[in-house]
Amino acid sequence: MCGIVAYVGPRKAQPILLEALSRLEYRGYDSAGLAILNGQGVEVRKKGGRIENLAKACLAKPILGESGISHTRWATHGAPTDANAHPHLDASGKLALVHNGVIENFLELKQKLTQAGHKFQSETDTEVLAHCLGEAYAKGKAKGEARLLEAVRSTLAQIQGTLGIAVIHSDLPGLIVGARRGSPLVIGVGQGENFLASDTQALAPYTNRVVILQDQEMVALHADRFDVSSPLGAQTQIKVEQIENGVTHSDKGPHAHFMLKEIMEQPRSIENAFRGRLDRDGATAKLGGLNMSSDQLRQVERISVIGCGTALHSGMVGKYLIESLAKIPVETQHASEFRYGDSPISPKTLFLAVSQSGETADTLGALREAKRRGYPCLGICNNVASSIARDSDGGVYMHAGPEIGVAATKSFTSQVMVFTLLGLLLGRLHQLSAAHGTEVLEAIAQLPGKIEQALRHSESIAKVAQKFSQSRSMLFLGRLANFPIALEGALKMKEITYLHAEGYPSAELKHGVIALIDKGTPTVLIATADGVYDKNLGSLQEIKARGGSVIAVGHEGDMKLKGLADALLEVPKTHELLQPILNVIPLQLFSYHTAVALGRDVDKPRNLAKSVTVE
Ligand code: F6R
Question: How far is the CA of 611 from the centre of ligand 1 (A)?
Fold first, then answer.
């Protein structure tokens, strides 16, 4: 949430900042800005709206200089206007700051500063922080770089909240100071130049050597060196890591949007999630990074899954998988609810924190809370260098590759695959028979081909989407493991089309929801042939009897369903436990094509950001 990029080196900073920033636009895209030291002082450009607005302003009047900071914003305090865009200056106009996070005590600090005569140009918490830093710098006794570092250190001690920041000062050309508490920051190590960014994605064109700043650390970044220190000022050991950094903007390939590309990638991303993890001899799964022995795993009596949004939906499918395969009770909780709640937790509970980005503030907070209470916690993450991956006792990477589209798609199916593997592993440590384990393994191995088959229906789904795109609202219904798939279908529809959509267990229809059924409110009913197929057909009849339309997700060639529903979104058949992975695919495509039909900005839907690093 919000993206930061800073550069110091021999090259002109402006084009580098703009290019790197555009690679972070998925983190927030309501306004953007940059500040560069131009030889005389700090020069700032900032604009409401997308980075292209900023780029136009910069092209019209370029800023010349070799070190600078930049930011793409997801508004927390104040509307997305030019004035509220970052960077923000201190009272002297010599210090500029970009900030990712939230300053919780900013009103108190603002009041004190206002009483002391400070004037503010924006409604943001960040400008307050800039003024606090400027005050601390003005009062500082140290000289040069040490003075700015001391100002940052002492100011952060007064601040409550999360932050990742980058600061420049016109007295100190060639220096960028960065600090993190909660929000991630990464140093990009170049040759004779260095970078600072809130995620490695920004650095791909420039370097694959990075240093991940640890929580509470600060960095003094120069073109030829960088010094990392702890909050108390002690130098800290650094580890330069090599990362894989692939995606560029042209990597959409033949697809119009990253979301479509990522939907289409699922045969490969699923394969990457299970590659090397199928143990055919043992009829089980091998998961190397759990850091738990078989005995320790056998002693787990309950599992608690924490996550947000789509990641939590994957956990809800995971509950069904683990309970079916391993007979271990699983509860799923919104990370944001768990972290501040005081519900009792059974002893011998294992926590699983699920997060594509590995940076979601609520999931990270919940993970830390569970650890504080003494429970073992595993992470299920995509981003290898993320805070959740680092803070967990062990875990499973989903290896889905970078997900750029704001709406999560391939990460969801990879998460569900990881839960399948976990269920299989835990099941085989308990009572699951080798024959049953082998059946599931075989079905997993065939899944990429089945996903390809499901994706071939994209064009016919686009026609259905076109037909229903003018609906006022949509209901999504499913039972058992397909209930979270209904929730996920509704979430995708809401976030990229802005149509109102709700997901329910099918049988809840009669308990109030049915009142919503009318001509303008079609129902998407997941009705692949399983133990509750006839029940689902009952729900379908009830909807039809009240004049509602039904778009069914059903097996290819299900003529009965085809005859009853207004449209059929077809999927191939697989093992019943894996069917939800296939069933979500037509729903991803349905929301994608509906959004396109409505002319929405699919990869950057309004009000959203890809990774939610504030509470
Ligand atoms: C929906 C979506 C969000 C995320 C949620 C958690 O398409 O992307 O609901 O799933 O913000 O994000 P991660 O998985 O990064 O923790």
Answer: 7
